């Protein structure tokens, strides 16, 4: 686990988002401190992606405040997003371009200096240099997910929003990806908001976990705290899988 | 406006074009084939009515410029939707006006290449020297491209609102305007009640002005100013519409689902 400071890089306060009669996000508040990795968990349709999209500014919340680096996202989006990056297995990185071209395109979007060197370095770190001159469309799901992760590191972000980034990677690459993220996070004090349905990933990487269900925060704490509170009181090993199952099935248990 | 981010959008479409043969042929082949067709027709009518030949070929070149710019802005936007790449772009620091400006520049660069190809074929093979009309015609082109950009922004707005399924409209819309735009015939041949409507189209003034220039060699400032004034009005309206749609899709959450 990383050593997080007390300065919040991301603050979400009383966030509410409704789609007609359906409340996707219901008064959620949490923060991610400098150098902290927050596991953002919940069953499908719990409101995780809606929350992330609100943070990215592509969905407008009905209520609540989102601040990054102490600045309101609704007022300073472009300036803030230079220090933020995003990766989701759901979206492609320029499908019909070669890997190098796609990454160069994103370097220009993020105004990355020494783009060539940066691309080489990130591809090396992710062991993806062999794909450099291949079209993204010709790569496997897992390989594309690695390139998406490379894209998210191009601008040396201070806050990473990772929405199931390793969903289609093989266990070896997941392990390498987790190690790389932890190393980069430690070196650069990156803060990470990380969603995944792979509880092992979260146990490996997260300092703190926020569990959402039906748009509300159902539980939050360290992986071990949550395990002790919701599964085995006297254990020394986190078991988020059991916590996940228990919290997903209990609708009434809110903190 | 950030130049680097606008450049990024242009660069992305340049990379796309060099890898996709059909995109390159779309820039060269379609306009040149259309020109050859209308070139032969113009050659045929030139013996009877030389000015009609100019109207047809000149109208055709200007029409292709309008249709290309108008549809390309929307089509290039849809490329990011088709490739599921839009979310990654929108999650970057880019501002939507920068993104749209990038798409418009891409479209203008493509149409410049199309125009040069058509100009070459028209001059060399059909003896149609469009450059003879100089600045008079160029002034109308500015208005033509201006309205095409307005149409392109409208296309992007409706794709944002209704998604991919509305995509074919991007191609159809310029052709829906064509009968009323008086591209190949004067406005006077249209029924009276339609004439009243078409004067609200900047493009009708452009083609009327073009025909006047072809006939007299002079510049008709009234048509030019009418087209410019209408373009400014439509530009303000389409920017308002685009902003409204952008805020609407952000509220509805559909932008993230494109």
UniProtKB/TrEMBL annotation, chain A:
It holds the Pfam family ABC_tran. Keywords: ATP-binding, Nucleotide-binding, Transport. Residues 10-239 form the ABC transporter domain. GO terms for molecular function: ATP binding; ATP hydrolysis activity. Belongs to the ABC transporter superfamily. PANTHER family: ABC TRANSPORTER ATP-BINDING PROTEIN, ABC TRANSPORTER ATP-BINDING PROTEIN NATA. This is ABC transporter domain-containing protein.
Automatic annotation (TrEMBL), chain B:
It is a multi-pass membrane protein. The chain crosses the membrane at residues 27-47, 53-79, 99-132, 138-159, 171-194, 224-249. Keywords: Cell membrane, Membrane, Transmembrane, Transmembrane helix, Transport. GO terms for molecular function: ABC-type transporter activity. The keyword Transmembrane applies. PROSITE patterns: ABC_TM2. It is found in: Cell membrane; Membrane. Residues 22-245 form the ABC transmembrane type-2 domain. One of its GO terms (cellular component) is plasma membrane. The keyword Transcription does not apply. Pfam families: ABC2_membrane (PF01061). Belongs to the ABC-2 integral membrane protein family. This is Transport permease protein.
